[in-house]
Amino acid sequence: MNELPEFFRTEVYHPLFVHFPIVLLLIATLFKIVSLWSIKVTYSEGGSILLILGVISVWIAVYTGDQADGIVSRQLCDPTVLKEHENLATTTAWIFSMALVLDLLLKYVESFRKKSAYYIVALLMLAGSVTLTLAGHHGAELVYQQAAGVNVPSEDCSEFN
Question: Which of 92, 105, 82 is nearest to 59 (CA)?
Fold first, then answer.
């Protein structure tokens, strides 16, 4: 009789953490874009808070993804998708990190407070959102087409009895 693997294994931590930066960074981008045309400071401040939380969580997702890589890469039919996913995720983390640094400079360094700098933050975040979406697409391909990190039950599902 087959047994179910333990749920909390190294390759499962990545999908547990990866959804936080997706939501946080996409909404942060939306807030920062809206703040360019809104007179309310709430959008800019909210976008900054979400950006900070998103950057922290995206680096956690990259770390847990690196941990899972060593386990799932041996089981994939096409590991090039995994490499592309990893490259896009790292690029996403760096782009949003650059946007965060510039956003913090805008907030705390007087000489950086120019309207064009706010647009650069928004453009960086838009670019990061594109790479984030592409990384997510490749991640979905890994899970749904190659069963990366997924327990595939036996044909008779005997491990559930």
Answer: 92
